[in-house]
Each structure stands twice: as C-alpha cells, then as structure tokens.
Amino acid sequence: MKQESLMTIPELMDFLQVRRNTIYTLRNLGLPTVKIGRSVRFKADSVIKWLSEMESTNSSASTAIFAKDNSHLL
Predict the structure, then answer these.
(1) pTM for this one?
(2) How far apart are CA 58 and CA 53, in angstroms?
C-alpha cells in the first residue's frame, strides 16, 4: 500500500499560505477531510484535486457571466 502523509490544520495553513479561518471556511465549502478520532487531517492530493475542481467551476461561472449579449454596448 502506498503511504500518503496526512496534514494537520497548521501544516495545511503553511501549504496553502492561508490563515486558520480560511481553512475552516474551505471545509464548510467541501474541502475533503479525513477524521481520525477527534482529529482532522488532509490528504495533499485530495486538497489539490478539490482546489482544481473549484478553479474550473469558478472559471466556468465567470465565463457564463461574461457570455451575456453585450452587443448593445457597441
């Protein structure tokens, strides 16, 4: 079995270069976690994949916003 290290909240804060509150906000938005007893851990691969999915979702939403008919502005 391939061993994948799990990050703690402080380690994830360093990894993403964000504050603790941002980690909690991201968890509420669906950031994948691993619960071990009362501890919360994060797999780097899962975090990167989730952020990539969020990035593509956000860019799709932005494209839809800017795809409106702006011909009246010409």
Answers:
(1) 0.71
(2) 9
